[in-house]
Amino acid sequence: MLAQDIHSQSGQEKVFDTGLALRQAVREGRFSGDTAGKAPGLLQGNLAILPKALAHDFLLFCQRNPKPCPIIGIGEAGEVSLPDLGQDIDIRTDVPAYRIFRPGQAPERVDDLNSVWRDDLVTFVLGCSFSFEEALVAAEIPVRHIDAGRNVPMYVTSIETRPAGAFSGPLVVSMRSFSPADAIQAILLSSRQPLAHGAPVHIGDPAQIGIRDIMSPDFGDQPIMNDRDIPVFWACGVTPQMAIRNCDADLAITHDPGHMLVTDIPAETAESRLWGIAQNNNN
Amino acid sequence: MLAQDIHSQSGQEKVFDTGLALRQAVREGRFSGDTAGKAPGLLQGNLAILPKALAHDFLLFCQRNPKPCPIIGIGEAGEVSLPDLGQDIDIRTDVPAYRIFRPGQAPERVDDLNSVWRDDLVTFVLGCSFSFEEALVAAEIPVRHIDAGRNVPMYVTSIETRPAGAFSGPLVVSMRSFSPADAIQAILLSSRQPLAHGAPVHIGDPAQIGIRDIMSPDFGDQPIMNDRDIPVFWACGVTPQMAIRNCDADLAITHDPGHMLVTDIPAETAESRLWGIAQNNNN
């Protein structure tokens, strides 16, 4: 471990300069915390791992619901590396915490996938909101839950996703509230990051999308809202997790919330980098 | 007059294929109506004509308030053509109706400026919202006042412009209301047209910007708002008109509301075209 890999060495409050450094620390058991803010400027991703028999339907589900499920990487069946997303990735060990879903069992939280890995498993990495939130912070737009050290509030909505095969379920949204002027800027900034859920899906009245009490989120922490704030709702990566939970796979794996795969890709160039990769693969 | 210049010949309901055709019809007295929708796809502009002694301060006012005052063209003192904006423009005759302001007198509506033109007059053309509204319509986003055949409602706000010399006054906004999903799209589409006032300045609660009763606009027609609509407020070209009215020039001229200068510039390429012109002039 190089000294510059870690700016702060107090417990889990480490900040890593490279995705590789963070992933190696995870793999070697030196880091197991959540990854929010731990690798500034680098694209992070939600994880979904499914048997190949379900992979086509899940990919179709993502294509039909690109706002909650922006695809940033897909492995071959059985493949544990993801060379498009980073150097020397081993998806079985490089995420700080995983959740394993099996029919009729409570989700199990594990530190690695060594004992459950199979040659038919297909890895999907989906964009998350961290890089968009970094852009807000960089633009000096206050993000209330970050300023308060809380998790973002998330809500199950009355909006249904477009189903695909075994995958269906409600759209889940995250909420950030802003002054109206900041809300306009947040809409514009987020629209430039389609791989981080893109532009919001709703603004204003929570009841219009089936949220009864904005102060009682279904996931995450209670929001902090200022008097003149307007709530802004973005599609959320919990959406595919709920669809996966309902898909009746004999085995399905996700990251544990907040514990993402950290890539080597600079967030601000993610759109062009990943489009470029897709294009090169097509040629 | 070529047959293709006019699609409909019923009274003032003409639609022109080119800016030149419309301007020539105006100059020759064959067209005197408002220009909304009369030259689809072409950039239209608000007009402000001021004595050279006040021109620097007005330009400074526009630079300091770019959302209400996006500059699309400025003539030399005494110059009546605007070659950057269109072929054979004569600013004294090519706008369907003008307003003349003189100290202590009520504004006077005139059809041309032949009798008042002076060699010290400087012409400013400022972007207007027509091209942005065309983009909304093209995106199939309902624009309530257009669908109802009304003028857009406009409001004097409690927000002050940044003053410059003799020019100051409140920010005036136009309001369009949408479903929340359409409001998000409208914010994104308008942000791509900074020369058509760009992104909105406010969304949601009208009282936050000093509007007491949204159903009683200061200018334009009463709004039509659906139950679940969210109001969205854009900076408006009436802002510089109010500043001009208060500037105590011995002579100041604007277009008559709704009666714009129609340019030859395709609205969708206006940003790059006008930036290109500015760049060429700098070289």
TrEMBL record, chains A, B:
Keywords: Lyase
Keyword Lyase: yes
UniProt enzyme class: lyase
UniProt-listed Enzyme Commission number(s): 4.2.1.-
Top-level taxonomic group: Bacteria
GO molecular function: lyase activity
HAMAP family recorded: Hydro_lyase
Family listed: Belongs to the D-glutamate cyclase family.
PANTHER family: D-GLUTAMATE CYCLASE, MITOCHONDRIAL (PTHR32022:SF10)
NCBIfam families for the chain: PRK05463.1 (NF003969)
Name recorded for this polypeptide: Putative hydro-lyase EL18_03362
